[in-house]
Every structure is written in structure tokens, then in C-alpha cells.
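[job 4471] stage=fold_predict status=RUNNING
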Amino acid sequence: MANDVMELFSFEVDTTVFETEEVFYLHFPVSWRNFLEIDKDDYKLKWKPKNLGKKLQGVFSTIFHVSWKANEPWLLADKKVDSEIIKLICLNWFAKENDCTVKELPFEIQNSPLIWQSSRMGDLYKEYKKDEWKYGWIPGLMARKFASEPRNLKLSNGTNRNLIFHHVYFNGNHECMSKPVKNKEKSGAFSYVIRFSLKTRGGLPEPSILNVSFCIRRILQRGIKKLNDVHYKRKGSILISIKDPFTSDCLQPLSYAQLKYKKQSGQVAWAEGTDALFADLLGCPFQPEQVIKDPMVFMESTNPSAFAVYSDLIFTSKYNLSKVVNGIGLPEKWALFDLVKDIFEELSPLKPCTNILSRNDSIGNERFPLRHSFAPGSILRLEIWGEEDFYHQAINTYLLQEIIFENVDGTYRLNAEPAINLEFVSRHTGKLAEALDSGQDSKAYDKRVRWIEKMAASETGNDLPTMSLVEIGLKENYESGTDPKKADRDGLAFAGRVSQFIYPLEHEEGEDKAKSRIVNSFFDLLMDHGFLPARASNLNEDTIYLGLGMIKGTPKGRKKEVFLPVVTRFHQNEVKIRLFGKNEWLSVNEALLASGKLTLSSLLDRAKKQNDSYKRYMSFFKRAIENCLVESESDIVILLDAKLRNQKWAELTNPLLDYHKLPFTLEHPDATERIRVIRVNTTDDVSQYRINPKGIVKENRNKGLFKDTAGIYYSIGQRPDNMQSPLRKQKFEYPGEQILHQRPVEFIPLGTANQEERDLLATLTHHMRKLNIAYPFHTILPYPLDIMKSIKKYMTVLVDEYEDNDPDVFEEWIYEDENAQFAISFSE
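[job 4471] inference complete, writing C-alpha cells
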């Protein structure tokens, strides 16, 4: 509602206030550096000290910065760590990397002293000109203070909950993680997590803001039954909790150290040599496989005790081994934020944001008639692969939902404008649903793809655009490595078919759920052919809308990620895509099929100073924009994915973002007048929030478009009904129920200083989150960026890392953090 205000979970931070704080630092001994540089290859060291630095921070959360530059302090900490322990760790690391024992190391290496020195942070800033140190130091200081004593959580229903928090440095973030809690003896345990991070805001490099985020961390309760229950590529994390055995300070609060494990060579073991080294030095008398096979024994052990924090990205069993489903309750999330505000009362919260949407400011929910750019009277073909009953059930469902109509001659037409006919073909799933040959990996994949291509080549009438809806089993119905879906999708694509999978309908499945699965899978296929809902006509049809982004993935046989730059174009009823390296605009289905034929040479490495990736993708983007400028007199609105700033696009970074200018230059004389840009940001530097109706703190799931005093906009979308939880539901009381939250999406219009125009651009972008024909609510990304996500599924050059086997899951609403994982507790 218009009277709603948004409260961001962020605080203004005057970093100069902290410059009088005492900090401690160590220099890396010269003899150690000389030893590292023996046999150095050009600019690369013989060994990689970066891993050692990460582990030092992970083990000792007081260390907030590690530098390997010769003219800077090596370790910076807000509390001294026993230097003899650090020396022991480093000497063992040297010995391991040099394939010798510590006693066999050179005398000067063994006897180099490590001496802590102290200073004021402000003095170090001035001496070393390293303002960026504050991004590790201030969040660490906040986390340590919050975890320094027990905290009382006051909930809106009047109940209080006493919690003990521990400071943890996890995946490069400073967090406070509560001691695991559970409501009942047989229910699952979980921890509340508070993350502190210092950020800048787009176009506002000063003052810095402290973002505070809240979530839960789940814990493994049931042991895995087989190693296939652990993902074979992703790394789990180990958190070691100690009451600082390296000092005599008995009041020192618990801290956590992060190590990682991974499934490799038929077993679960420490992921890296440094993980194994630290586990040994910290006295872990077990391997991670033991813990995940028998978690309760290690949880209940006293010295050490261990628990595995659960993630669906790590544990792939069809059963929830944690007994807890993801999501923190709104009352708990908001009470934690109020607690942070009370503890850090010297910090100033950001000023509230106002809702700029009125009740009448909507594009509506109208879906039909669907809009498209096919010629009137065109014919699309839908192959339904499955049992005969499923074929008829699908057609009857489409008729009842008025997605299609029956013509007088018994054929069918789509509920679309202009009229377009739909040809149905019934095909038995047969071999498509069969498992791949076991133990043959790529050979089994190639065999299936060739069979599908051969089958398609023998058919007649292949000139129609063809969609394939395939009824196929769940992933757990197949042995490891034999799930055929990737091979089936690629084979069908090579045969000219865009595909969608649907699990067989179950007898006990509710009628509404079955109907929804049948309908949404068909809508997904239509989306992949560029169909739009009727409500798209409520946008300005004279404007050309472009989306600029990159698809990220890992190619087969490589570890480094590669990127495919993509430009999408949406104008009136027509949706087109241009793939990197190409100059032609393709229809959506053409682009999906073409992406399957891309080779590794068609992709880019991450942009760095040492390569030309930035130059190449910027040239590609600019050619596409200039093509639109030349071929049309329409104005152009460009939606840019904020993640492009990680590809050396300096003008998109927060400190250099200029609201009044475009983030690129073009030779076309009308560019600055006809082009406007919106940077769309969904990364973790977007603040969490709560909406307060009429300024009153009250649980709600309101939506809107909110504007802060700096001119940054936050879009809060509508939630799907089946993903809404009771407003006052707490995770503590309902650990087995999923609680999902609306995610804020940040918009920053660029290229204009006019406030009215900026409001209109933000409103337009907010409405473009509602152009998915399958759902009357919002996707996370606006349409020109959202339609890129289908391309990756068809890229055969990439490893199928995140295959979505559930055609019904609306994955944008399910944020699954990789912070996964596994904790060990040592007590004195």
C-alpha cells in the first residue's frame, strides 16, 4: 500500500569513529618469503599461500585481513593470537608443501620470530593507504561484540528466548551463529545466523553501510546411508568450535574455524591439503565421513563434539536428513534485527523508504489471449511423450483451462492473438524414459543422443516448430550416473525440439496439483517460444527493451568458469536473443537450440587485466545496442545485470556509478537522448528489509516499489499462494515447515537526473518482473533478464551442474545458500 514504508536492515557507519580502536599486526618473516620465492615461475610463487591465508582466517576469526605483499603487514587482527601456534601451523605447511618434515626445514625458517605489534587502525590506514581493510575489520568487530555475551530474543507474541552466539568467519563473511536449538527432543536442531558485512551503495561510496542479514543453519540429524547421498562436486564445510585453547583467557567466547571436505576417490575426505593439515594440528581424531555417517554420536560426544550443518546442495538423499526445512520465521528475523539495533544503539539505521506505487499502478493479471510474433495461422506442434491416458488428460486439461480451443474440424488453436493453431502428437516415452547404460558415462550419453537424432531424421513433416513434453521418472528412480534427462534434452534439441520434463502423475496426487503441473509445463514450453501474457500490452509498446547479461558455467574437463554474453530484445510482441559471437537476432526457441551447438571457443574467460574478455564482450553489447538505434527510431530501455561489474565493467561498480550518465559510450549521436539504463541487482549487497504498514512494525507480506532518499529503488514482488506461510509462524515451533520470504530486487536508473523519469523507469522495471505467463506473480529478475535462464539448460559444452529435475519448482523463490555445512565443537 502507498502508506507502507520499508525499513532496511542496514546502518550508516562513520568509519572514522573506529579508527582509534587498537589492532595488532604481524609481518611475514623475510626468510619465509625468500623460501616461498625459491624456484618462482615468473610472477607465480612455487606454492599457493592464498589457501593458507584463508585457513588462518577461518581458524582464527580475530584475523580480519591477510596480505602477501612484501611492503604490508601480513596478518591484521583485533585480538592477538598465540604467535607460536601460528608459527607451528606455518612450519607444518612449509614442510608439507616441500615434502619434508619440520625438522628438515632450513634453520633460519624454523627459528624466524613472529612478534605482534600494535597500532591504532587510523594510523595504519594513513601509513599503508589501505582503506579496504575496514571491510573485514569492522564486521569482525561487530560480530565479536554481539557474541560476547548471551542474548535474549524478545518475540512479538511476548515470549523470550535466551540464546548463546559464537563468532564464525564463514566463506569470507563474519557471522554470529547461535548454539543449536530445538523445540522438542525428536525435532531437528538448527542455529540462528546473523551476518555482518560492510558495503557501499550504488553511486554512494560514502558513507559505508553495515548490512545485517538473518537466516538459519540446519544440522544433519540422520546419517547418510551411502556415499551417493553426498554431492560429488560441491565442497562441504567444517566449523571447529574451540574455547581458545591457545590462550589462558577462560572468558574468551567460542569461535569457529572453517575447514572443508569433499567426496573424492570413493570416500569423503578433507577437500584440500591445508584442510587436512589444520584438522591434524587442531586435534580432530576423525575424518568427515565418520561424522556424516553417524552424526548423533559426534553431536553428543564431549571432546570433541561435532555436528554437520545440513544443505540440500551437499546432501542429495531423497530424505531430509536434517528434520528441518529451510527458512526463518518473520517474528524471529525481525526480533533479531531489533536486538542488533538495541546492542549497537550508537549506529544510525538508514532512513525509511517510501512506496511510490499507488493502488492503480499495476499491469494487472490478465494472461489471455497470449501475445506472440508468429504469423497469423501458423502451426506449432506439441509432442506429448507418455502413456495414452496422460496424452488425453493433458489435452482435456488445456481445454478446461481455456488455454486451447477446439476448431470445428477437430483440430486445436491456442488462446492467442493473432490466432495460431496447435498440432498434438502422441508418442510413447519408451526409450526416452530408460536409464542410460550404467558405468559408461560419456559413451552412454553419446549413444542416447545419436539414437534420438536418428529417430528424428527418419520422420517426415519436421518443418514445424516442435515442442516436446516428456513424461519421465524422478532422478532417484535411476542409479547414479544413469539419469537420462540431460542426454534426452540435448538429443531432442539436436533434433530441433525444445523440451520440458514432467514426472508421472500419481494416483494419490491432488487434482489441483496434477492440473497445475500439466499446465505449467506447457506454459514453460510456450515461454521458450517467446509467448507473453496479455498484460504485457500495458507496457509502453513503442519502447525497445534490452537485457544485457552473462550465462556462467563450467565446461566439461575444466575447473575454471566460462561466460556467454547474451542480449535479449523485447519490442511489442516480438522477443529476440543475440548470442555472443553472432550478429543476427534469433527467436527464443532458435536461440535455445543454437546454444546447444556452441563450442568452448564461443565462450569467454572471466574478464581480467591479463585477457581481452572485457573488450570483446563490450564490443558485442555495443554492436547490439547500436543495431537497435540504427534500425528503429524508438527509445531504448536497457536492463543490466549488476553482476557484470565483476567482469571489469568499472562504470557499474558502486563507487563509480553515476546516476546521470550512461555506463558506456556510443558513437551514435542520439544515444544519450534515446537510451536509459537500469542496473538490476540481486546480490548480497542488497539489504534485507521489513515493510511497516503506516510506519508500524507488524508482520506482513506486503509488496510494492520503495524509494530511498538517495534515489535507489527496491522492488518487492507478489508471493505465490502455495509459498505463503502464516505471518507469525516461527521456525522454532515449526522446524519441519518451509518458510519463504520475498526477496528485494534493487533498481538504479542511469542516464537521467529527472526524478519523475527515474520513478517511471523503476516502475516499468518492477512491472517487467510480472511477464511470466505461467504465474500471476513476480519473478526475481525482470523479463529481459529472466528469459536468459533457459539458455544454460541447452548448452552442451557446459557440465550439467544444477539440473532442475522438478518441472514445478519455481526456483527463483527458493534461495539455497551454499553456507552449508559441518561443525565441530571442542570444549575444555
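[job 4471] summary: The longest strand covers residues 204-219.
[job 4471] exit 0
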